[in-house]
Amino acid sequence: MALYEYVTRDQLSGFDKYKYSAVDSNPLSVYVMHPFWNSVVKVMPRWLAPNLITFTGFMFLVFNFLMLSFYDYHFDASAEGYSHVPSWVWVAAGLFNFLAYTLDGVDGKQARRTNSSTPLGELFDHGLDSWACVFFVATVYSIFGRGPSGVGVATLYYILWVVLFSFILSHWEKYNTGILFLPWGYDISQVVSRKHCTPHPSGFSLFNSRGVVTMASRSNTLKHSSMYEAFLPFLSPVLLFLLSSVWVIFSPSNILHQQPRVFYLMVGTAFANVTCKLIVCQMSNTRCQPLSWLLVPMATVVLLAVTGLVANETLLIYVWTAVVILTHIHYGVSVVSVYTHTTHTHTPHARTPQTHTHTHHF
What we know:
Helix 5 runs antiparallel to helix 6, helix 5 packs antiparallel against helix 13 and helix 11 packs antiparallel against helix 13 (260-284). The protein has helices spanning 9-16, 27-42, 50-71, 87-113, 119-144, 153-177, 185-196, 201-204, 209-217, 227-231, 235-250, 255-258, 260-284, 295-306, 313-345, and strands at 22-23, 180-181. By secondary structure, the protein is an all-alpha fold. It has one domain (9-346). It has a two-stranded parallel ribbon with strand order 1-2. Helices cover 67% and strands 1% of the residues. The chain has 15 helices and two strands. Keywords: Acetylation, Endoplasmic reticulum, Lipid biosynthesis, Lipid metabolism, Magnesium, Manganese, Membrane, Metal-binding, Phospholipid biosynthesis, Phospholipid metabolism, Transferase, Transmembrane, Transmembrane helix. Its cofactor is Mg(2+); Mn(2+). InterPro entries: CDP-OH_P_trans, CDP-OH_PTrfase_TM_dom, CDP_ALCOHOL_P_TRANSF_CS, CHOPT. GO terms for molecular function: ethanolaminephosphotransferase activity; metal ion binding.
């Protein structure tokens, strides 16, 4: 199998022993959304594959991103003096976002309902969730946009990173404790954004401090005994943040102001690639690698950009973004292919369906 090194034999073996464990104490989720999703899943045909539901929900967010890229490419349509986004686009965007949110809430329920839950399903779900962060944030940004009455592209860049780190924090906790503490921010931000048509920074930045406190109080049950091993998963995300921020700050052509949408997409996709590798490690109970290899060529790209060795910085960001997207897609396809091939060919009876509570956060 090509590029089999994406997933090691130890990781494939670890998937066989994986059991899902999560804590969701969000009242909105427990008392409102789950009852709604329980009703929705009952009308779905049993032949409908949970992974197809997951992928369809994700594609609704991608379609929103592409649709608003056409009508508001530079996030300035809401500013005075620019052609505004047509009303029907906002109606469609709201509908697609609601459908994506709903499908993200019912795919795990469909898996349990049809007795088809597997570690691959959870990996597929969480992997797409990590990538969905950038599509959701970029869509919300178009509501108020940049300009005198909006929010600057640099501010949105840092808000995006708050969302990204909030997402990875939950999986870092699970890497150390074996339990996924679901944050409250995603559900709350969904309701607030639809009610007020504006992003809610506190919803985005609500880190899962409950899980951190819980983890600290259970220090004797942590999987990793040293601080170095415990915080190792943060090395690559922090390096990614530093590299992208260096590009933003020292860009000769002010690339973030010139191409904000493409830059956000590049950062969000690179983050998803880094996060997926952490998810694989925490699900297979294997050690997280200190450095994601994707950061090595990215460091070279940033160096070429900030030193002016590449004259056309816009072309550089387009080419590098395409490379990052294709690399991440190839990674995802390879992991799924290797897992499926190994399951069906080498250990056909080793995996039994894992009952799990579906997660639905960014």
